[in-house]
Amino acid sequence: MLTVLMECRDQEPELAQSLAVLVAGAVEGLVSDVVVLDHGSKDGSERVADAAGCRFHSDWNLGDVLGTVRGEWLLLMEAGARPQFGWVDELSEYVTLNRDPARFSPSRTYRRPLLKRLMQPSPPLETGIVLSRSQALSVARADMKLCELARGLKSRRLSSEMIPAWAARSPR
User: Fold this and answer.
1) What whole-number distance in Å separates Cα of residue 18 and Cα of residue 79?
2) I need a surface site. Which of 29, 62, 83, 84 has the fewest CB within 10 A?
3) Domain over 2-168 is classified CATH 3.40.50.1400
4) Residues 6+ apart with CB under 8 A from 120
5) pTM of the entire predicted model
């Protein structure tokens, strides 16, 4: 029913955090497959994806990948992002009753600092985006990244929150 797509590059711990949360969706029958699109990782990202049963592509074309996914709906999210409580039930209902793209609500606990919120637009995948595979295929290009696919899409807001990927990264 739903395919999750994430891009990564040397984000092994962040990928593991996201995949751990997605297990609930797989158990409930919502998440049919997870696809990780890699940008030359040199860490254990591929091992983490393989252990979780994900498809891992190190050399990929977005149009080809979208043509092979199982789900009729796609969840595009950043490695490290984590949907919060109630997301499985809400998303199951949403994809059954709607056709428009949707985004998760921003986390109330993890918010970007006020100045960053005012000065910089939110990254297109900060709160993830859910869209139908047919919508994605209609605009996807071979060299396109997931954030480019999500940029500019008008979407509804889900009440379930998503913790952004930047919250998963340790301070440097």
Assistant:
1) 6
2) 29
3) no
4) none
5) 0.92
> How would residue 121 be classed by pLDDT, with cut points 50, 70 and 90?
confident
Which of 107, 100, 81 is closest to 5 using CA atoms? 81
For residue 18, how far is the Cα from the chain centroid? 9
Quick: pLDDT tens for 21-55: 999 999 999 999 999 999 999 999 999 999 999 99
Convert the pLDDT of each residue in 155-170 to its tens digit. Answer: 999 999 999 999 877 4
Measured CA to CA, the distance from residue 54 to residue 68 in angstroms comes to 13
DSSP-assigned states of every residue in the chain: -EEEEEEESS-HHHHHHHHHHHHHHHHTT-EEEEEEEES---SSHHHHHHHTT-EEESS--HHHHHHH-S-SEEEE--TT-EE-TTHHHHHHHHHHH--S-EEEEEPSSS---HHHHHHSPPPTTTT-EEEEHHHHHHH--TT--HHHHHTT---EEEEEEEE-GGGGSPP-
- Residue 166 to residue 110: CA distance in whole angstroms: 9
* Domain locations along the chain: 2-168
